[in-house]
Design brief:
Layout (H helix, E strand, L loop, with lengths): L24 H27 L3 H8 L15 H22 L4 H22 L15 H18 L2 H21 L17 H9 L17 H19 L5 H22 L12 H24 L7 H7 L2 H10 L2 H14 L3 H25 L7
Helix pairs in contact: 1-2, 1-3, 1-10, 1-11, 1-12, 1-14, 3-5, 3-8, 3-10, 4-5, 5-8, 6-8, 8-10, 9-10, 13-14
């Protein structure tokens, strides 16, 4: 999910056809943009909105939190966008590995190792080293990325585009039907799309090892990981398409925008019978967040890799090149205490709303400077 940094755009300008060997700088920038929101930027947005209360700023602040159940907010896009980006990069990685003479067996081994590493890192994030195994949550964000990306990668290596597209449609249709029609046997009359009655929760209670984060349900549980595979597959479809050398960058952008619109239309069309729901990773959620992910990638790709406008990307790439590092580091390093050491005095002399902005901005700054130090030292955590 991370890689070597770029000092400048790869010489790519408008109208040129990207060489298949070139790395997409837009991926690093978009990954950084995505991770920024769980690196304190969401709290900063909320704090800034608090300075000027209004219907618009209240809505913006609310979008920085997950919805309780059905529905959709910006904060619900962070995880699936990251998984989508991991999918986009995979066709490039495989092409590079094959060009370097790596055997198919070694490629499979790398997939398995990466997937399992992410599962273990997810457990570390959840407190593995506390050694309280009775209360250890095995399911995790990183674990789902590892499993969903790994399964999608194996499908990529074994099937062509049309077959994988059929598999993706079948998974969404099948999971959607199960979600809408089959309630948990122990639901006591609760509907299949409710927190109490959903089938995914029942599967978690029966088979998911470890503690469930909500007691009877885990949003990163077993059954709901299946449609997450499609999120990774959408990224891989996108990566395959962008690698094509017979279509110019501007036209690729238009095709991606059209595909995003189609996904959004599909998600909204079925949302009346199958609500958009991140915790269930509903089939409509896959479509809607797939539209967002594809649209954002198309925008970043056009600006950076097609137009060559890349000077502004350093801020995001510093984060994107060490995304796993900052995700884990926030559980270990007291960035908030460091920020308070330098800015706490100033914040204490300000009105509460202004102090919240200073504290939030300080946290983001400390995290970014930590990553910038690693960037300058050419230190990147590769998984």
């Amino acid at each position: 999910m991370s890689g070597a940094p770029f000092g400048a755009c790869s010489g790519f300008r408008a109208g040129r056809i990207m060489k298949q060997s070139e790395r997409l700088m837009s991926l690093d920038a978009l990954r950084g943009f995505d991770m920024l929101f769980i690196m304190g930027f969401a709290s900063l947005v909320v704090a800034v909105c608090g300075l000027w209360p209004s219907a618009v700023t209240d809505a913006a602040a609310a979008s920085m939190s997950h919805v309780a159940w059905d529905g959709f907010a910006h904060h619900d896009t962070i995880f699936p966008l990251f998984l989508f980006i991991a999918g986009v990069s995979f066709p490039y990685s495989v092409a590079k590995q094959r060009a370097g003479g790596m055997s198919e067996g070694r490629i499979y081994a790398k997939i398995v190792r990466r997937g399992l590493t992410l599962v273990v890192l997810g457990m570390v994030y959840n407190g593995l080293f506390k050694l309280d195994f009775e209360n250890l949550r095995i399911a995790s964000v990183l674990g789902r990325i590892g499993l969903a990306w790994g399964i999608a990668a194996v499908l990529y290596l074994n099937f062509g585009v049309k077959t994988r597209a059929a598999i993706a449609v079948a998974v969404l249709a099948g999971y959607g039907a199960l979600s809408a029609l089959v309630a948990a046997p122990d639901a006591a009359g609760a509907g299949p799309l409710t927190f109490e009655g959903n089938l995914a929760g029942y599967i978690d209670r029966q088979f998911q090892p470890g503690k469930l984060i909500y007691g009877s349900f885990d949003p990163e549980g077993l059954l709901s990981t299946v449609p997450a595979v499609v999120t990774a597959m959408l990224g891989m479809f996108t990566g395959e398409f962008v690698r094509r050398s017979d279509i110019r960058g501007g036209r690729k952008t238009l095709w991606m925008a059209a595909a995003a619109a189609a996904l959004l239309a599909a998600g909204l069309a079925f949302s009346g019978v199958l609500p958009v729901n991140k915790k269930l990773w509903s089939s409509t959620f896959v479509c809607v967040v797939g539209a967002y992910s594809l649209g954002m990638f198309a925008l970043f790709y056009y600006l950076i890799d097609v137009r060559g406008w890349c000077r502004w990307t350093l801020f995001f790439r510093v984060v994107g090149l060490n995304s796993i590092t900052i995700y884990l580091a926030q559980r270990i390093v007291g960035f908030g205490r460091i920020s308070d050491f330098f800015l706490g005095g100033i914040a204490s002399k300000c009105p509460e709303a202004v102090a919240a902005v200073i504290s939030s901005a300080g946290y983001v700054a400390v995290c970014w400077l930590f990553l910038y130090f690693l960037y300058r030292k050419n230190v990147f955590l590769k998984v």
